[in-house]
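Table S2 (continued). Query chain:
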Amino acid sequence: MAGVAEQIRSVRAHIPAGVTLVCVSKFHPVEAIREAYAAGERHFGESRVQELQKKVPALPADIHWHFIGHLQTNKVRDLLKLRPYLIQSVDSERLLQAINDEAAKQGFVQDVLLEVHVAKEESKTGLTPSEIEDLRLHIADFQHVRVRGLMTMATNTDEEVEIRRCFSEAKAVLSNLSILNSLSNPVLSMGMSDDYRIAIACGSTMVRIGSTIFGERSRKLPKAVFFDQDGVLFNSMPYHAASWEWAMQKHGLPFTKNQTYRNEGRTGASVINEAHRLVHGMDASPELIEAVYADKSQHFNELTGGKLPELIPGIREVLAYLKSRGVQCWVVTGSGQRSLLDNLRNTFPDTFTGVISAFDVQHGKPHPEPYLKAWERCGFAKNECMVVENAPLGVRAGKAAELFTAAVNTGILPDEALWEEHADVVFPNMQALLAWLQQCQ
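Corresponding output:
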Protein backbone atom coordinates (compact mmCIF):
# COMPACT_ATOMS: atom_id res chain seq x y z
CA MET A 1 0.00 0.00 0.00
CA ALA A 2 3.02 2.29 0.24
CA GLY A 3 2.66 2.87 -3.50
CA VAL A 4 -0.99 4.00 -3.60
CA ALA A 5 -0.17 7.72 -3.73
CA GLU A 6 2.52 7.12 -6.33
CA GLN A 7 0.15 5.04 -8.45
CA ILE A 8 -2.47 7.77 -8.28
CA ARG A 9 0.04 10.34 -9.52
CA SER A 10 0.96 8.02 -12.39
CA VAL A 11 -2.68 7.50 -13.38
CA ARG A 12 -3.56 11.16 -13.11
CA ALA A 13 -0.78 12.00 -15.54
CA HIS A 14 -2.91 10.35 -18.23
CA ILE A 15 -6.28 11.81 -17.20
CA PRO A 16 -7.11 15.22 -18.69
CA ALA A 17 -8.99 17.95 -16.86
CA GLY A 18 -12.72 17.37 -16.92
CA VAL A 19 -12.47 13.60 -16.52
CA THR A 20 -13.39 12.31 -13.06
CA LEU A 21 -11.29 9.57 -11.52
CA VAL A 22 -13.23 7.06 -9.43
CA CYS A 23 -10.85 4.96 -7.35
CA VAL A 24 -12.39 1.49 -7.25
CA SER A 25 -11.84 0.51 -3.64
CA LYS A 26 -14.07 -2.57 -3.50
CA PHE A 27 -12.56 -5.42 -1.46
CA HIS A 28 -9.67 -3.18 -0.37
CA PRO A 29 -9.15 -2.17 3.26
CA VAL A 30 -10.03 1.15 4.84
CA GLU A 31 -6.32 1.90 5.25
CA ALA A 32 -5.78 1.86 1.48
CA ILE A 33 -8.70 4.24 0.97
CA ARG A 34 -7.29 6.59 3.61
CA GLU A 35 -4.00 6.71 1.72
CA ALA A 36 -5.78 7.57 -1.53
CA TYR A 37 -7.82 10.16 0.34
CA ALA A 38 -4.62 11.71 1.73
CA ALA A 39 -3.36 11.91 -1.86
CA GLY A 40 -6.35 14.10 -2.71
CA GLU A 41 -8.90 11.60 -4.04
CA ARG A 42 -12.56 11.99 -3.09
CA HIS A 43 -14.40 9.65 -5.48
CA PHE A 44 -14.43 5.94 -4.53
CA GLY A 45 -16.30 3.00 -6.02
CA GLU A 46 -17.80 0.06 -4.15
CA SER A 47 -19.80 -2.94 -5.40
CA ARG A 48 -21.41 -4.40 -2.27
CA VAL A 49 -23.87 -2.71 0.04
CA GLN A 50 -22.62 -4.68 3.04
CA GLU A 51 -19.05 -3.53 2.49
CA LEU A 52 -20.15 0.06 1.97
CA GLN A 53 -22.09 -0.03 5.23
CA LYS A 54 -18.85 -0.77 7.05
CA LYS A 55 -16.68 1.74 5.20
CA VAL A 56 -18.91 4.83 5.18
CA PRO A 57 -18.86 5.44 8.96
CA ALA A 58 -15.15 4.64 9.17
CA LEU A 59 -14.03 7.20 6.59
CA PRO A 60 -14.30 11.00 6.06
CA ALA A 61 -17.78 12.35 5.40
CA ASP A 62 -16.77 14.31 2.29
CA ILE A 63 -16.04 11.16 0.24
CA HIS A 64 -18.24 10.75 -2.84
CA TRP A 65 -19.27 7.10 -2.86
CA HIS A 66 -20.12 5.52 -6.23
CA PHE A 67 -22.01 2.24 -6.28
CA ILE A 68 -20.66 0.35 -9.30
CA GLY A 69 -21.70 -3.28 -8.73
CA HIS A 70 -24.81 -5.24 -9.56
CA LEU A 71 -27.55 -3.89 -7.30
CA GLN A 72 -30.27 -6.22 -6.05
CA THR A 73 -33.67 -4.60 -5.63
CA ASN A 74 -33.90 -5.87 -2.07
CA LYS A 75 -30.71 -3.94 -1.23
CA VAL A 76 -31.92 -0.58 -2.56
CA ARG A 77 -33.30 0.58 0.78
CA ASP A 78 -30.06 -0.09 2.65
CA LEU A 79 -27.97 1.55 -0.07
CA LEU A 80 -30.05 4.72 -0.21
CA LYS A 81 -29.79 5.12 3.55
CA LEU A 82 -26.07 5.69 2.92
CA ARG A 83 -26.85 8.49 0.44
CA PRO A 84 -24.47 7.41 -2.33
CA TYR A 85 -23.16 10.17 -4.55
CA LEU A 86 -23.95 8.18 -7.70
CA ILE A 87 -25.39 4.75 -8.50
CA GLN A 88 -23.67 3.79 -11.75
CA SER A 89 -25.17 0.36 -12.39
CA VAL A 90 -28.88 0.81 -13.10
CA ASP A 91 -29.32 -2.10 -15.49
CA SER A 92 -33.11 -2.41 -15.72
CA GLU A 93 -36.25 -0.31 -15.58
CA ARG A 94 -37.36 -2.43 -12.63
CA LEU A 95 -34.30 -1.35 -10.66
CA LEU A 96 -34.79 2.28 -11.67
CA GLN A 97 -38.36 2.08 -10.37
CA ALA A 98 -37.22 0.53 -7.09
CA ILE A 99 -34.65 3.30 -6.57
CA ASN A 100 -37.24 5.95 -7.41
CA ASP A 101 -39.80 4.51 -4.99
CA GLU A 102 -37.34 4.17 -2.12
CA ALA A 103 -35.86 7.64 -2.69
CA ALA A 104 -39.40 9.02 -2.54
CA LYS A 105 -39.94 7.32 0.83
CA GLN A 106 -36.66 8.72 2.15
CA GLY A 107 -37.39 12.18 0.75
CA PHE A 108 -34.59 12.94 -1.68
CA VAL A 109 -33.54 12.61 -5.33
CA GLN A 110 -30.90 9.99 -6.18
CA ASP A 111 -28.41 10.53 -9.01
CA VAL A 112 -27.93 7.49 -11.24
CA LEU A 113 -26.34 6.32 -14.46
CA LEU A 114 -28.02 3.89 -16.82
CA GLU A 115 -25.79 0.93 -17.59
CA VAL A 116 -25.75 0.32 -21.34
CA HIS A 117 -24.81 -3.12 -22.71
CA VAL A 118 -22.61 -2.80 -25.78
CA ALA A 119 -20.12 -5.63 -25.15
CA LYS A 120 -20.11 -8.94 -27.01
CA GLU A 121 -20.53 -10.88 -23.77
CA GLU A 122 -23.83 -12.24 -22.45
CA SER A 123 -22.43 -12.28 -18.92
CA LYS A 124 -22.32 -8.48 -18.80
CA THR A 125 -25.46 -6.75 -17.59
CA GLY A 126 -27.15 -3.60 -18.78
CA LEU A 127 -29.87 -2.10 -20.91
CA THR A 128 -29.56 -2.39 -24.66
CA PRO A 129 -29.39 0.86 -26.65
CA SER A 130 -32.95 0.25 -27.87
CA GLU A 131 -34.19 -0.33 -24.30
CA ILE A 132 -32.61 2.94 -23.22
CA GLU A 133 -34.28 4.71 -26.14
CA ASP A 134 -37.66 3.28 -25.06
CA LEU A 135 -37.00 4.30 -21.45
CA ARG A 136 -36.17 7.83 -22.56
CA LEU A 137 -39.78 8.40 -23.55
CA HIS A 138 -41.05 8.18 -19.98
CA ILE A 139 -37.98 8.81 -17.88
CA ALA A 140 -39.50 12.06 -16.64
CA ASP A 141 -42.07 9.97 -14.76
CA PHE A 142 -39.37 9.02 -12.25
CA GLN A 143 -39.51 12.05 -9.97
CA HIS A 144 -36.99 10.87 -7.38
CA VAL A 145 -34.12 9.80 -9.61
CA ARG A 146 -31.96 12.04 -11.74
CA VAL A 147 -30.38 10.28 -14.72
CA ARG A 148 -27.04 11.96 -15.20
CA GLY A 149 -25.68 9.81 -18.01
CA LEU A 150 -24.52 6.35 -18.96
CA MET A 151 -22.05 3.73 -17.76
CA THR A 152 -20.66 0.86 -19.79
CA MET A 153 -18.00 -1.85 -19.88
CA ALA A 154 -16.19 -2.94 -23.01
CA THR A 155 -15.82 -6.51 -24.21
CA ASN A 156 -13.10 -8.32 -22.27
CA THR A 157 -10.56 -8.57 -25.06
CA ASP A 158 -7.09 -7.40 -26.07
CA GLU A 159 -8.40 -6.25 -29.45
CA GLU A 160 -8.34 -2.47 -29.38
CA VAL A 161 -10.69 -2.24 -32.35
CA GLU A 162 -13.43 -4.04 -30.43
CA ILE A 163 -12.83 -1.96 -27.29
CA ARG A 164 -13.11 1.24 -29.32
CA ARG A 165 -16.31 -0.04 -30.93
CA CYS A 166 -17.91 -0.53 -27.51
CA PHE A 167 -16.92 2.89 -26.24
CA SER A 168 -17.90 4.65 -29.46
CA GLU A 169 -21.31 2.97 -29.42
CA ALA A 170 -21.91 4.06 -25.82
CA LYS A 171 -20.92 7.61 -26.77
CA ALA A 172 -23.41 7.52 -29.65
CA VAL A 173 -26.18 6.28 -27.35
CA LEU A 174 -25.52 9.17 -24.98
CA SER A 175 -25.55 11.66 -27.86
CA ASN A 176 -28.93 10.35 -29.03
CA LEU A 177 -30.64 10.80 -25.68
CA SER A 178 -32.15 14.24 -25.76
CA ILE A 179 -33.28 13.91 -22.15
CA LEU A 180 -29.64 13.52 -21.17
CA ASN A 181 -28.36 16.15 -23.59
CA SER A 182 -30.43 18.68 -21.66
CA LEU A 183 -28.01 18.20 -18.76
CA SER A 184 -25.18 20.69 -18.58
CA ASN A 185 -22.56 17.97 -18.07
CA PRO A 186 -23.84 14.51 -19.04
CA VAL A 187 -21.69 11.75 -17.55
CA LEU A 188 -20.21 8.97 -19.64
CA SER A 189 -18.56 6.53 -17.24
CA MET A 190 -16.38 4.07 -19.13
CA GLY A 191 -12.84 2.84 -18.89
CA MET A 192 -11.06 0.77 -16.26
CA SER A 193 -7.45 -0.06 -15.45
CA ASP A 194 -6.76 -1.87 -18.73
CA ASP A 195 -8.58 0.42 -21.14
CA TYR A 196 -9.14 3.84 -19.56
CA ARG A 197 -6.85 5.65 -22.01
CA ILE A 198 -8.85 4.29 -24.93
CA ALA A 199 -12.08 5.26 -23.16
CA ILE A 200 -10.89 8.83 -22.65
CA ALA A 201 -9.96 9.08 -26.32
CA CYS A 202 -13.52 7.92 -27.14
CA GLY A 203 -15.17 10.57 -24.98
CA SER A 204 -15.30 9.20 -21.45
CA THR A 205 -15.90 11.79 -18.74
CA MET A 206 -15.41 9.37 -15.83
CA VAL A 207 -13.05 6.42 -15.43
CA ARG A 208 -13.18 3.66 -12.81
CA ILE A 209 -9.71 2.46 -11.84
CA GLY A 210 -8.95 -0.06 -9.13
CA SER A 211 -6.13 -2.56 -9.61
CA THR A 212 -3.73 -0.02 -11.12
CA ILE A 213 -4.09 2.09 -7.97
CA PHE A 214 -4.59 -0.45 -5.20
CA GLY A 215 -3.08 -3.53 -6.79
CA GLU A 216 -4.79 -6.84 -7.39
CA ARG A 217 -6.57 -8.23 -4.37
CA SER A 218 -5.50 -11.84 -4.19
CA ARG A 219 -8.09 -14.54 -3.63
CA LYS A 220 -7.17 -17.73 -1.88
CA LEU A 221 -8.18 -21.01 -3.42
CA PRO A 222 -10.64 -22.74 -1.07
CA LYS A 223 -9.60 -25.93 0.67
CA ALA A 224 -13.03 -27.51 0.22
CA VAL A 225 -15.71 -26.91 -2.40
CA PHE A 226 -19.28 -28.13 -1.92
CA PHE A 227 -21.05 -28.83 -5.23
CA ASP A 228 -24.76 -29.16 -5.68
CA GLN A 229 -25.64 -32.09 -7.95
CA ASP A 230 -28.57 -31.33 -10.27
CA GLY A 231 -27.78 -28.43 -12.56
CA VAL A 232 -24.17 -28.25 -11.35
CA LEU A 233 -22.76 -31.70 -12.04
CA PHE A 234 -25.49 -33.14 -14.25
CA ASN A 235 -27.78 -31.40 -16.72
CA SER A 236 -30.67 -33.18 -15.04
CA MET A 237 -32.97 -30.28 -14.25
CA PRO A 238 -34.97 -30.43 -17.54
CA TYR A 239 -35.82 -34.05 -16.71
CA HIS A 240 -36.66 -33.22 -13.10
CA ALA A 241 -38.86 -30.32 -14.20
CA ALA A 242 -40.82 -32.46 -16.65
CA SER A 243 -41.13 -35.31 -14.13
CA TRP A 244 -42.33 -33.11 -11.28
CA GLU A 245 -44.88 -31.41 -13.51
CA TRP A 246 -46.23 -34.77 -14.74
CA ALA A 247 -46.36 -36.46 -11.32
CA MET A 248 -47.90 -33.48 -9.51
CA GLN A 249 -50.62 -33.02 -12.09
CA LYS A 250 -51.36 -36.75 -12.04
CA HIS A 251 -52.25 -36.36 -8.36
CA GLY A 252 -54.22 -33.13 -8.81
CA LEU A 253 -51.46 -30.74 -7.76
CA PRO A 254 -50.83 -27.99 -10.33
CA PHE A 255 -47.09 -27.52 -10.74
CA THR A 256 -45.01 -25.97 -13.52
CA LYS A 257 -41.45 -26.41 -14.75
CA ASN A 258 -40.66 -22.91 -13.53
CA GLN A 259 -41.79 -23.90 -10.03
CA THR A 260 -39.39 -26.85 -10.18
CA TYR A 261 -36.46 -24.51 -10.77
CA ARG A 262 -37.71 -22.18 -8.04
CA ASN A 263 -37.93 -25.10 -5.58
CA GLU A 264 -34.74 -26.83 -6.71
CA GLY A 265 -32.72 -28.05 -3.75
CA ARG A 266 -35.62 -28.93 -1.50
CA THR A 267 -36.25 -32.52 -0.50
CA GLY A 268 -38.99 -34.25 -2.47
CA ALA A 269 -41.32 -34.34 0.54
CA SER A 270 -41.02 -30.58 1.12
CA VAL A 271 -41.75 -29.84 -2.55
CA ILE A 272 -44.85 -32.03 -2.47
CA ASN A 273 -46.01 -30.50 0.81
CA GLU A 274 -45.64 -26.99 -0.56
CA ALA A 275 -47.67 -27.83 -3.66
CA HIS A 276 -50.30 -29.57 -1.51
CA ARG A 277 -50.60 -26.61 0.85
CA LEU A 278 -51.30 -24.27 -2.07
CA VAL A 279 -54.30 -26.38 -3.07
CA HIS A 280 -55.54 -27.86 0.21
CA GLY A 281 -54.05 -25.60 2.87
CA MET A 282 -52.30 -28.47 4.63
CA ASP A 283 -49.40 -30.90 4.25
CA ALA A 284 -49.83 -34.01 2.14
CA SER A 285 -50.27 -37.37 3.81
CA PRO A 286 -47.22 -39.67 4.01
CA GLU A 287 -48.98 -42.02 1.59
CA LEU A 288 -49.51 -39.27 -0.99
CA ILE A 289 -45.93 -38.08 -0.65
CA GLU A 290 -44.69 -41.61 -1.27
CA ALA A 291 -46.99 -42.05 -4.28
CA VAL A 292 -46.12 -38.71 -5.91
CA TYR A 293 -42.40 -39.20 -5.42
CA ALA A 294 -42.53 -42.75 -6.75
CA ASP A 295 -44.33 -41.54 -9.87
CA LYS A 296 -41.89 -38.69 -10.26
CA SER A 297 -38.87 -41.01 -9.98
CA GLN A 298 -40.37 -43.50 -12.41
CA HIS A 299 -41.12 -40.79 -14.97
CA PHE A 300 -37.60 -39.40 -14.54
CA ASN A 301 -36.08 -42.81 -15.27
CA GLU A 302 -38.35 -43.22 -18.29
CA LEU A 303 -37.25 -39.85 -19.69
CA THR A 304 -33.57 -40.59 -19.16
CA GLY A 305 -33.80 -44.21 -20.22
CA GLY A 306 -32.36 -45.18 -16.87
CA LYS A 307 -29.10 -43.47 -17.75
CA LEU A 308 -27.42 -40.52 -16.12
CA PRO A 309 -28.16 -37.20 -17.79
CA GLU A 310 -25.32 -35.55 -19.65
CA LEU A 311 -22.79 -33.59 -17.63
CA ILE A 312 -22.89 -29.82 -17.34
CA PRO A 313 -20.32 -28.57 -19.89
CA GLY A 314 -17.05 -27.68 -18.22
CA ILE A 315 -17.67 -29.42 -14.88
CA ARG A 316 -15.04 -32.12 -15.49
CA GLU A 317 -12.42 -29.45 -16.09
CA VAL A 318 -13.41 -27.61 -12.90
CA LEU A 319 -13.18 -30.80 -10.81
CA ALA A 320 -9.89 -31.85 -12.43
CA TYR A 321 -8.36 -28.47 -11.68
CA LEU A 322 -9.44 -28.52 -8.03
CA LYS A 323 -8.18 -32.07 -7.61
CA SER A 324 -4.82 -31.07 -9.09
CA ARG A 325 -4.57 -28.36 -6.45
CA GLY A 326 -5.44 -30.71 -3.59
CA VAL A 327 -8.87 -29.21 -2.92
CA GLN A 328 -11.53 -31.41 -1.30
CA CYS A 329 -14.65 -31.73 -3.46
CA TRP A 330 -18.00 -32.68 -1.91
CA VAL A 331 -21.48 -33.24 -3.29
CA VAL A 332 -24.29 -31.61 -1.30
CA THR A 333 -27.67 -32.40 -2.80
CA GLY A 334 -31.29 -32.46 -1.74
CA SER A 335 -31.82 -35.45 -3.99
CA GLY A 336 -32.97 -38.76 -2.63
CA GLN A 337 -33.12 -40.37 -6.04
CA ARG A 338 -30.87 -43.39 -5.76
CA SER A 339 -30.47 -43.80 -9.52
CA LEU A 340 -28.41 -40.61 -9.52
CA LEU A 341 -26.63 -41.14 -6.23
CA ASP A 342 -25.68 -44.73 -7.00
CA ASN A 343 -23.93 -43.71 -10.22
CA LEU A 344 -22.23 -40.59 -8.90
CA ARG A 345 -18.93 -42.22 -7.97
CA ASN A 346 -18.86 -44.24 -11.21
CA THR A 347 -19.08 -41.04 -13.22
CA PHE A 348 -16.50 -39.21 -11.09
CA PRO A 349 -14.16 -41.92 -9.72
CA ASP A 350 -11.81 -40.82 -6.94
CA THR A 351 -13.14 -37.27 -7.15
CA PHE A 352 -15.40 -36.60 -4.19
CA THR A 353 -14.38 -36.72 -0.56
CA GLY A 354 -17.97 -37.24 0.50
CA VAL A 355 -21.66 -36.89 -0.36
CA ILE A 356 -24.39 -35.23 1.68
CA SER A 357 -27.85 -36.19 0.36
CA ALA A 358 -31.46 -36.18 1.51
CA PHE A 359 -30.65 -39.33 3.49
CA ASP A 360 -28.17 -37.46 5.70
CA VAL A 361 -30.23 -34.48 6.88
CA GLN A 362 -33.49 -33.69 8.62
CA HIS A 363 -33.88 -30.38 6.81
CA GLY A 364 -33.21 -29.90 3.12
CA LYS A 365 -32.28 -26.69 1.34
CA PRO A 366 -32.93 -23.79 1.80
CA HIS A 367 -32.16 -24.80 5.39
CA PRO A 368 -28.40 -24.52 5.96
CA GLU A 369 -28.14 -28.02 7.48
CA PRO A 370 -26.85 -29.79 4.31
CA TYR A 371 -23.97 -27.34 3.85
CA LEU A 372 -23.27 -27.13 7.56
CA LYS A 373 -22.98 -30.91 7.68
CA ALA A 374 -20.50 -30.91 4.78
CA TRP A 375 -18.53 -28.13 6.48
CA GLU A 376 -18.41 -30.01 9.77
CA ARG A 377 -17.17 -33.16 8.06
CA CYS A 378 -14.53 -31.48 5.88
CA GLY A 379 -12.64 -30.16 8.90
CA PHE A 380 -11.77 -26.71 7.54
CA ALA A 381 -12.75 -23.24 8.69
CA LYS A 382 -15.76 -21.63 7.01
CA ASN A 383 -13.58 -19.04 5.27
CA GLU A 384 -11.66 -21.93 3.68
CA CYS A 385 -14.79 -23.42 2.08
CA MET A 386 -16.93 -22.53 -0.91
CA VAL A 387 -20.35 -23.52 -2.24
CA VAL A 388 -21.14 -23.93 -5.95
CA GLU A 389 -24.86 -23.74 -6.68
CA ASN A 390 -27.18 -23.12 -9.58
CA ALA A 391 -30.49 -22.68 -7.73
CA PRO A 392 -31.85 -19.74 -5.71
CA LEU A 393 -32.75 -21.91 -2.71
CA GLY A 394 -29.35 -23.56 -2.84
CA VAL A 395 -27.70 -20.14 -2.77
CA ARG A 396 -29.89 -19.23 0.19
CA ALA A 397 -28.77 -22.38 2.00
CA GLY A 398 -25.10 -21.67 1.33
CA LYS A 399 -25.35 -18.10 2.57
CA ALA A 400 -27.40 -19.17 5.63
CA ALA A 401 -24.51 -21.53 6.45
CA GLU A 402 -22.22 -18.46 6.29
CA LEU A 403 -20.19 -19.86 3.40
CA PHE A 404 -18.88 -18.09 0.31
CA THR A 405 -21.41 -19.06 -2.35
CA ALA A 406 -20.84 -18.95 -6.10
CA ALA A 407 -23.76 -19.43 -8.47
CA VAL A 408 -23.48 -20.81 -11.99
CA ASN A 409 -26.66 -20.07 -13.92
CA THR A 410 -27.34 -23.25 -15.90
CA GLY A 411 -31.13 -23.04 -15.75
CA ILE A 412 -34.08 -21.02 -17.04
CA LEU A 413 -34.26 -18.42 -14.26
CA PRO A 414 -32.70 -14.95 -14.67
CA ASP A 415 -29.45 -14.05 -12.91
CA GLU A 416 -31.49 -11.71 -10.71
CA ALA A 417 -33.03 -14.74 -8.98
CA LEU A 418 -29.53 -15.76 -7.84
CA TRP A 419 -28.35 -12.25 -6.93
CA GLU A 420 -31.49 -11.72 -4.84
CA GLU A 421 -30.47 -14.66 -2.66
CA HIS A 422 -27.15 -12.86 -2.02
CA ALA A 423 -24.83 -14.99 -4.15
CA ASP A 424 -21.28 -13.71 -3.72
CA VAL A 425 -20.63 -14.08 -7.44
CA VAL A 426 -22.69 -15.29 -10.42
CA PHE A 427 -21.14 -17.01 -13.45
CA PRO A 428 -22.79 -17.69 -16.82
CA ASN A 429 -21.14 -21.10 -17.19
CA MET A 430 -18.55 -23.48 -15.75
CA GLN A 431 -15.82 -22.10 -17.99
CA ALA A 432 -16.18 -18.72 -16.28
CA LEU A 433 -16.04 -20.39 -12.86
CA LEU A 434 -12.87 -22.26 -13.87
CA ALA A 435 -11.20 -19.04 -15.02
CA TRP A 436 -12.08 -17.42 -11.68
CA LEU A 437 -10.67 -20.37 -9.71
CA GLN A 438 -7.47 -20.31 -11.74
CA GLN A 439 -6.91 -16.72 -10.65
CA CYS A 440 -7.01 -17.73 -6.98
CA GLN A 441 -3.74 -18.21 -5.18
